[in-house]
Amino acid sequence: MREQFVIGIDFGTESGRAVLVDVRSGKEVAHHVTPYRHGVISERLPESDVLLKPDAYLQHPDDYLEVLETSVPSVLQQAGIKPESVVGLGIDFTSSTMVPVDRQLVPLCRKPEWNRHPHAWVKLWKHHGPKAEAEKIDRIAKERGEPWLSRYGGKVSSEWMIPKCLEILGEAPEVYHAADLFLEAADWVVALMTGEVKRNLCAAGFKSFWSKSDGYPSEDFFAALDPRFADITRTKLRGEICPVGERAGRLTPAMAERMGLRPGLPVAVGIVDAHASVLGAGAVDPGEMLLVMGTSTCHMLISDEEYEVEGISGVVEDGILPGMYAYEAGQPAVGDLFAWFIKQGVPEYVQREAQSEGMTVFQWLEQRAAQLRPGESGLLALDWFNGNRSILDNAHLSGLIIGYTLGTRPEEIFRALMEATAFGTRMIIDAYRASGLGVNQLVACGGLPQSNQLLMQIYADVTGMEIAVVSSKHTSAVGAAILGSVAAGSAEGGYDSIPEAVRRLACPRVKKFQPIPEQEKVYQRLFREYKILHDYFGRGGNDVMKRLKQIREEAGFSASGDHR
Amino acid sequence: MREQFVIGIDFGTESGRAVLVDVRSGKEVAHHVTPYRHGVISERLPESDVLLKPDAYLQHPDDYLEVLETSVPSVLQQAGIKPESVVGLGIDFTSSTMVPVDRQLVPLCRKPEWNRHPHAWVKLWKHHGPKAEAEKIDRIAKERGEPWLSRYGGKVSSEWMIPKCLEILGEAPEVYHAADLFLEAADWVVALMTGEVKRNLCAAGFKSFWSKSDGYPSEDFFAALDPRFADITRTKLRGEICPVGERAGRLTPAMAERMGLRPGLPVAVGIVDAHASVLGAGAVDPGEMLLVMGTSTCHMLISDEEYEVEGISGVVEDGILPGMYAYEAGQPAVGDLFAWFIKQGVPEYVQREAQSEGMTVFQWLEQRAAQLRPGESGLLALDWFNGNRSILDNAHLSGLIIGYTLGTRPEEIFRALMEATAFGTRMIIDAYRASGLGVNQLVACGGLPQSNQLLMQIYADVTGMEIAVVSSKHTSAVGAAILGSVAAGSAEGGYDSIPEAVRRLACPRVKKFQPIPEQEKVYQRLFREYKILHDYFGRGGNDVMKRLKQIREEAGFSASGDHR
User: Quick one: which of A61, A58, A64, A63 has its CA closest to A9?
Assistant: First the structure.
């Protein structure tokens, strides 16, 4: 039997990447990364003088096409295989990254009449423009006792689809009306490839308040937000919502030519990136929590039952695996926090010593921090440098470090920051458990776990659980490839179910970290302290963090009129 | 009339310095610094293999003599004057820095039979060996309802004389018994110069529980600490206690020769260094608070009435000015805190930019921090990096920074640390006021105020008070010189009272900072937040800082058996 392959494409924040996976052995045969030519657009629109507001984070849709046209041919070429050897293709995407399109699926921002209008552009997941809209949705949903709110930990994020749509309606009704559809970028790319608009259930569930049992919230609810918004789910958000693992359609001849693939290739319905990682990491057994650790961390869990968990990002039936509930929680600053420290907090002598010892600053800090015992730094931190997503869901919170002395050293602060992210994860695990969900095994993937052994040991010690690290650096792309293989089905060289495909294709786990009892004991004491501070600053004991941000904003605006 | 001069000698922590002052014009004619050859001894005894315990900070008495023999001749030589032109001499000293001596006033550590014994050496003020002793004194004084305790803000410091004596009795009774006297180093140097043991009232009052109205605590009290300790004030601490401004005696021929001065020169009774600054700065009017700002800050105030002030270091009748009560409070880390940040917290790019702009890192940070408005950093700090002296008097407290975001920059942290020390000073001012004492004017001297305009502006804005900066960098040495002129009296070319000498010789004030109402308003809001955190972490709301230090100590000891 000749070799067969599936392709997974992962659309991230700064770049897209394709992996080519052997559909029998699960081996990653090739991968290729295409950085987005326009990156994250946050100051002004491309090729124009149109300045953007603070909190605006946009993207250029052509960058996604460039990934298709560059990375896909590249992996085929690297592996030396022909288009006929590829049996299926799947994609995952950041979310909610949304594209306003016209009837021909052309992004409004690509049309001359709209391309100088910020609201016509792709809004990246981290576009935080609709903060007020998210708060309004939150408030009105609470007032009305909307039942779906509890599936989102009782709080709506400005990063989601509906706030973004409402922002456009409020600030640019002309764009709102000109748009035929608002699409998840994942669904837009799939529609381009196949000619069919199939909305993926994963994003609809996690970012658009949709559920398998209830569908969208009622028109009454949307009308309460704005009378013009009443019909949105029948108009701008219309379209079939398709379960993960389904085939969205087949590659059109035009796109096949642009991507160097064969026409008719099965293409899977899209999925959100962190959620694809669950499949790629094979973390599908009950009680197995996946930590997707990069700039931020997502905490993913699959269960056959639905629970209400405090402060989670969402729970969606069939969101990742058919017949199962998928849970997501998150910490918004993890790798970002370490990067901040390395840029803003590490003295010159460390850089000098690291250089003379042939290490990066990160390595130097990790080595020194690893020589410390738990508790030896005397420091404790709250990891809220970018707010708290789970379980407090409060963007006004900020970071804290306590225990400084005149002897405090950079490696001690570095370790305290790592520990703080571990305590934050522990809070999330405890919230899952408090709801009734079991968490028995941790699996880690993403950029951080492989390169940072100390971090993994700290997580094992703080949680008191074994943590297994996934080998691949492209876990979500492999997850997308798994969906590609299911879109093909066994008849066309793939698999007939997601669980089967996961068993065959998920990335192996290369390393396991076990809690060290002596260290675990110290971390239990430190976690008690963390929890006291967490509750004091996070649950209304002292709202100083919010007040400091308010004072800051007033000072900033009065200083320059522009707080950027 | 020919020119006449007085000499003031300031014995600091790392060095001693002499100033020569024109006794008519008050002009500083010359100064000279002699660094202590043995510095602060904290690892092992000089020329030996005897290792010291953590918290041991000792000095070599010969270093003090070297100051007399080097800096004094130097100032005469610089000014080109003869010994006959000098009319008086005064000294000030760190305190309680104590010397165990034999009957001939020879320090025990200079005798072959004792020189390998740590407890025979000079204990520097910051020797923290007798922590347990200080706590015991504290406890027993409270149990017995000792009336003198309230003069010290209700708390005894391990830096004072009595805990140091008790430490020697407990740990080295043989040294205790071999010592004929325990002397303040100031009094030892004066005794060497004059041949007469005259204990200075300032140190006796602030560091030895002595008061003009009650003398020392009772023998019963000392016996309750240890039966062998009952008679200490009649034995090891015996000797006349002399008011500040008195003449201790006249320079002996032998010492005159060693110092290049004339025999018979009037020598003043000693004084504690920060207290000498009050005279040097001329901050002797009621309601005028002197901030002596260097590595730490002392807050000195003179009043004609006695009040009980929370958490002050002490109040002593006649302590600085006859007929007046002298108050002292303090913050243990100010300049030290900024130095810590510059060493441990400032990234390489700042160093690079500062260099390319021809500035020191300190100047670069100050310039950038000065461009920020109050509150704009979003940060708030507790300045307890070296514990809190006033008003909480708790060495277990530690530093805190709150409000971090991923955009936090070094100059923002720097400014927050400066602000924190200002808030700490504001707490002390408020405590003085709450007791009934007026504080209407701030005067600043020491190493920091002259070189850091932003810091002074912040202090003015945070306190809402004008702050005047003293010109001299040797304020305490000038204060000692003032006492030298009074020791001489008008009959010998000096002055007959301290107030008169202060009027003529105190250092001028060169610069005044006024609060800026708009900034004051923001700082009022921030100070409210500071106070909430101060009380929560400092008054038992959450003793996490103490627990972190405990965990740290356990971790440190179990790691290496040595926590140094």
Answer: A64
Rounded Cα–Cα distance for residues B283 and A559 (Å): 37
Q: What is the pLDDT of residues A324-380, one digit of tens each?
A: 999 999 999 999 999 999 999 999 999 999 999 999 999 999 999 999 999 999 999
Q: What residues form DSSP beta bridges with B271?
A: B92
Average pLDDT, rounded, for chain A: 95
Burial class (CB in 10 A: 0-12, 13-18, 19+), B289: buried
What is the torsional sign of CA B330, B331, B336, B338?
Answer: negative
**Residue for token pair 């379960």:** A243
- HSE value, Cβ hemisphere, 13 Å, CA-based, for A370: 12
- Retrieve residue A79's tokens: 């592996």
Please give the Cα distance from B73 to B366 (Å, whole number). 39
Whole-angstrom Cα distance, residue B382 to residue B376? 17
The Cα-based distances of A156 to A161, A206, A292, B162 in angstroms read 10, 11, 21, 63
Using a CB-CB cut-off of 8 Å, the residues of chain B touching A542 are 532-533, 536
CA gap B374, A555 in Å, rounded: 7
How many CA atoms within 13 Å lie on the side-chain side of A31? Answer: 19
| DSSP-derived secondary structure letter, A515 | -
Q: Determine the residue of chain B that is closest to A400 in CA distance.
A: B402
Q: What's the pTM value of the predicted model, to 2 decimals?
A: 0.92
Residue in chain A closest to B396 (alpha carbons) equals A403
The Cβ of residue A135 has, within 10 Å, a number of other Cβ atoms equal to: 14
Tell me the per-residue pLDDT of B303-335, one tens digit each, with 9 for 90 and over.
999 999 998 999 999 999 999 999 999 999 999
Contact A363, A354 (CB under 8 A): yes
Cβ contacts (< 8 Å) between B337 and chain A: which residues? 406
Cα B404 to its chain centre, rounded Å, is: 33
Looking at the DSSP bridge assignments, the partners of residue B388 are B394
| CA dist., res. A164 & res. A158, Å (int) | 7
Closest chain B residue to A409, measured at CA: B344
For B121-176, how does the pLDDT look when each residue is reduced to its tens digit (9 = 90+)? 999 999 989 989 999 999 999 999 999 999 998 889 999 999 999 999 999 999 99
What band does A557 get if pLDDT is binned at 50, 70 and 90?
A: low
State the DSSP code for A46.
T
Contact B158, B332 (CB under 8 A): no
What SS3 class is residue A313? coil
Given a contact cutoff of 8 angstroms between Cβ atoms, the answer to whether B472 and B28 are in contact is yes
Got the DSSP string for B375-393?
TTT--EEE--BTBB-TTT-
Query: Residue A527: what residue type?
Result: F
pLDDT-based confidence at residue B1 (cuts at 50, 70, 90): low
**Chain B interface includes A211 (CB < 8 A):** no
Contacts of B542 in chain A (CB under 8 A): 532-533, 536
| CB-nearest partner of A398 from B333, B385, B402 | B402
Chain B nearest C-alpha distance from A387 (Å): 8
The pLDDT value recorded for residue A192 is: 98
- Give tens-digit pLDDT for A98-154: 999 999 999 999 999 999 999 999 999 999 899 999 999 999 999 999 999 999 988
CA pair distance A488, B233, nearest whole angstrom: 96
Residues, chain B: 564
DSSP string, A127-192: --TTHHHHHHHHHHHHHHT-GGGGGGTT---TTSHHHHHHHHHHH-HHHHHH-SEEEEHHHHHHHH
β pairing state of B86-93 and B98-101: unpaired
Check: CATH 2.60.120.10 for B5-281? no
CB-based contact B524:B15 (threshold 8 Å):
no
User: Are residues A237 and A245 in contact, defined by beta-carbon separation less than 8 angstroms?
Assistant: no
Q: Which residues of A touch B544 (CB under 8 A)?
A: 380, 402, 529, 532-533
